[in-house]
Amino acid sequence: MAGDLRAIHSHVHAWRTGIFSDLDGAQIAQIREHEIVNDYAKNCVVFSESQYPKGVFYIHSGKVKIYAVGNEGKEQIIHIAREGEVIGFRAMFSGETYKVSAATLEASSIGFIDRNAFSQLIDDHKPLRDAVIRELAKELGDKALFITTLAQKSVRERLAYSLLLLEDIYRDGPINLSREDLANFVGTATETLIRLLRELKEDGLIHIQTRKLTILDRDKLKRLAGA
Hints:
By secondary structure, the chain is an alpha+beta fold. It is built from nine helices and eleven strands. A four-stranded antiparallel beta sheet has the order 1-8-3-6. Strands 2-7-4-5 form a four-stranded antiparallel beta sheet. The radius of gyration is 19 Å and the shape is elongated.
């Protein structure tokens, strides 16, 4: 019973964030009528590059990596989505196949709303339509800034910058990524990442316990990142 109540509370809280945050209770109830919620284990694929989108995915809990795969098979993680985010709707609107893939980084609860229902919901609810437009515009600006910023930094600076971003994503606890995923987020080799993490730990900027990472000195890390 306690577990069920926590799950319900988590789902209710999730609807108060992201593009649905401006909707009232009746509007959210209408959306949930069209939603199918599934539980995903860690490392489960949510959607894959080259698939045609059939709808959108809403993250109630957990975290999902959005990534592209290069010619040599190496992943580049371009975003980590968390509770309250909708993923997959950009490809749905474009009418093209997914240009990226999505997979869970941890056990996650994710709702699915098919494209016809979501399109109708946008037509029916101006706050939702406005929120989607804002999200599309914001993402374009954020991605441009992210790419420009990282392109002008050394690997050490990129790692520091990435850790600051991840601290915000993992605001409810330590950064919990595999070394491979963290390297793919920073855009470097795993061996290089491990060496740089060791240096940051020796300098007292971070604490590492198994794979969990906590920032100890945010100001020094910000200076290192040039943020």
